[in-house]
Amino acid sequence: MNKKTVSDLTSLRGRTAFVTCDFNISLKNGKAVNNTRIVKALPTINYLLSRGCRVVLASHLGRPQGVDPQYSLKPVAAALTSLIKKPVRLINNFWDKSALREIDENRSGITLLENIRFFPGERENDQDFSRHLSQMADFFVNDAFGASHRVYASTVGITNYLPSVAGLLLDLEIRMLSKALNNPEKPFVIFIGGAKTPEKISVIEKLLDKADTIALGGAIANTFLAAWGFGLGQSMVDYEMVEMARVVFWKATRIHSALVLPVDVMIQANGGKALPRVSDYDKVPNGSAIYDIGPATVNIYCKLLKGAGTVIWNGPMGFYENKHYKKGTDSILKEITRARAFSIVGGGDTLSCLDKKDYFDKISHVSTGGSAMLEFMKEGTLPGIEVLLDK
Ligand code: ADP
Ligand code: 3PG
Ligand code: MG
User: Where does ATP bind (predicted)?
Assistant: First the structure.
């Protein structure tokens, strides 16, 4: 990477770092259910602390409109305290001038600012707000890969006022994704699933130039099947994206790359208690909906995985929240962990499917980025990376 990182900084002792992280984690009953994003931020925090540096941490959680207690970072502060084994002080009203004193007094410890999106200045990338944040520290560290596609005060604005470098997680994400995208061991196979068709379809279009095969599952595959003119009953289809899907097909044929769709699917009769059943992709009855890829498709996709040199996967293969429709996603996941390929898995919902520790050990890189990972795959950089100091 051509950007400076915390490892390039000398004489850290006694200085204060403002570190933006992506602690946007899933909560259940006020507790962190999946703290992957917190755990992955620890190397940077510990690196700074162990070199005598003080840290002020900032992050968003969800998309609150103003101050909203259900989006408080309290559960994050609790998780951090137990992981770092040092008290983490959560500061509420840090926009207030008096908060600067409070932060200063806590300079010997670790300060976590309350959800940065409680303040409109964050999303407006407001310069006064950015300057206020910069007054809390001597330098800025961006470790929030998952939020680096956002041009906000804590990712971009603050860099106007402080020397700014990448954290160790951001650096790792960039290196791993660049390795896969710029110099992939072939065959390079990409799996895209999930439901966010508009943002994913442009990534597919772009990656056709790089990948040998792009295999689709989830609701996005439905939109591509609809582009062939098949009736898909009540399945989730993004009809506004059907024309774009045709363009992507056309591009795939023109450059001789393979765009692979499910050959069979799991369907359920609309609203009924009917059990899921297998259907060919072109025989979905009017009243039924596709909720997963079928067994023949799983076989084809697993064969692709077995032979792959590099694999990137984003987006579940089906409606995985329902146990009847989790099989496609689980089978692909299991095969990725067995494959010899260099593998990267990322995406908000995709990470929720990694429910065994084993999975983390056997995947080359679990990315903390959702949309950020996709945008990086498309553009090769992100706004929050571009503004950091060059090496
Ligand atoms: P990620 O967060 O990993 O990028 P997305 O947000 O794009 O993934 O998509 C995840 C959502 O897609 C899940 O809620 C899942 O239930 C839904 N989904 C996947 N396949 C289908 C399908 N066939 N029908 C309805 N919903 C689906
Ligand atoms: C994510 O979960 O993808 C990141 O934390 C970014 O969240 P956002 O889409 O609300 O900006
Ligand atoms: Mg999602």
Answer: 200, 321, 347-350
Q: Is 15 annotated as a binding residue?
A: no
Ligand 3 centroid, distance to 314 Cα (angstroms): 10
pLDDT of residue 85: 92
End-to-end CA distance of the chain: 8
Q: Same structural domain for residues 111 and 191?
A: no
Determine if residue 28 is labeled as part of a ligand binding site: no
Ligand 1 atom at minimal distance to the Cα of residue 217: 20
Tell me how many degrees the CA angle 322-324-330 measures, rounded to the nearest 5: 85
Give the integer Cα–Cα distance in Å for 385 and 373: 13
Model pLDDT, residue 196: 94
Evaluate whether residue 114 is within a structural domain: yes
Q: Which CATH number goes with the domain that contains 26?
A: 3.40.50.1260
How many structural domains are present in the chain?
A: 2
- Is 279 domain-assigned? yes
pLDDT tens sequence across 163-213? 999 999 999 999 999 999 999 999 999 999 999 999 999 999 999 999 999
Q: Is residue 382 part of a domain?
A: no
Radius of gyration of the chain (CA): 22
Query: What is the per-residue burial (b if ≥16 Cβ within 10 Å, else e) of 103-118?
Result: beebbeebbbbbbbbb
Last residue of a domain, which of 139, 171, 203? 171
Which residue among 23, 150, 377 has the greatest number of ligand 2 atoms within 8 angstroms of its CB, and so is best to mutate?
150
- pTM, whole model, 2 decimals? 0.92
* 108 pLDDT above the threshold of 70: no
Pocket of ligand 2 (CB under 6 A): 22, 24, 63, 146-147, 150, 348, 370-371
Shared-domain flag, residues 120 and 249? no
Residues 210/310, Cβ–Cβ less than 8 Å? no
Q: Count of CB atoms within 10 A of residue 384's CB?
A: 26
User: Was 54 annotated as part of a binding site?
Assistant: no
> Does residue 272 register a pLDDT over 80?
no
- Which one of 119, 145, 171 terminates a domain? 171
Ligand 1 contact, 294 CB (< 6 A): no
Range(s) of the domain holding residue 20: 6-171
Which of 60, 116, 142, 382 for mutating ligand 2's site (highest number of atoms within 8 Å of CB)?
60
To test the pocket of ligand 1, the residue of 196, 265, 267, 321 to mutate (highest count of ligand atoms within 8 Å of its CB) is 196
Q: Look at residue 268 and tell me if it is in a domain.
A: yes
Q: What tens digit of pLDDT does each residue of 209-247 get?
A: 999 999 999 999 999 999 999 999 999 999 999 999 999
